[in-house]
Design goal:
This protein is mostly helical and about 180 residues long. The chain folds into three domains: about 110 residues, Orthogonal Bundle (Chromosomal Replication Initiator Protein Dnaa, Chain: A), CATH 1.10.1750; about 35 residues; about 30 residues. About 80% of the residues lie in helices and about 0% in strands. The protein has nine helices and no strands. α1 runs antiparallel to α6, α3 crosses α5 and α5 crosses α6.
Length: about 180
């Protein structure tokens, strides 16, 4: 780990503990209280997201196995998706604060806010859904027109298909001439 990454790790851990209001999650590494486990999982997730550290390197910081780090990251992701209170009181403030601090520190590695990305994708999805509905309406109109065609046109197409499929006529010109003569 280079000096740049070390400073980033310190910033991420201090910011995370300050926003969560819990310094104990880093000091009490062997306790399994729910709030400590969740706060450690958030720290794992933020370290993985904002640094280029491997799971093993993050595990060395917390004196944990890489599998524990991976489990914590998955726990944080699941809680972020399912628990609105967890997302709005813990994750979003930490992401916003880190996006505010870290770009000044390292301009080439800025992580976009995932919730804004989801919002943009939802808007694009709505536009595509409206376009799909419009195309479906056009297709319905075309089907309705074909169904409501006069019987003469239906008979003509039926006769042309008969001549073409049975190969009684050699060319399309002869088929048209045959139709005109009848």
């Amino acid at each position: 780990m280079n000096n740049n990454e070390t400073i980033k790790v310190d910033i991420i851990l201090k910011t995370t503990s300050k926003i969560l209001g819990d310094v104990d999650f880093f000091e009490q590494k062997n306790r399994r209280l729910r709030h400590l486990v969740e706060n450690r999982a958030i720290a794992f997730k933020m370290l993985r997201k904002y640094t280029r550290l491997s799971l093993e390197d993050i595990g060395n910081i917390f004196e944990k196995n890489h599998a524990t780090i991976l489990h914590g990251i998955k726990l944080c992701d699941n809680l972020t998706l399912t628990d609105k209170f967890f997302r709005e009181t813990k994750i979003i403030p930490i992401i916003n604060k880190l996006n505010e601090i870290l770009p000044a520190f390292d301009d080439d590695f800025v992580v976009p806010n995932p919730y804004e990305t989801i919002k943009n994708l939802s808007e694009k999805n709505a536009v595509l859904l409206n376009a799909l509905i419009n195309e479906r309406g056009k297709l319905f109109e075309l089907e309705h027109y074909i169904i409501s065609m006069p019987t003469i046109h239906k008979k003509y197409f039926k006769d042309v298909r008969f001549f073409y499929n049975t190969k009684q006529k050699d060319t399309k010109l002869e088929m048209v001439q045959e139709q005109l003569s009848n």
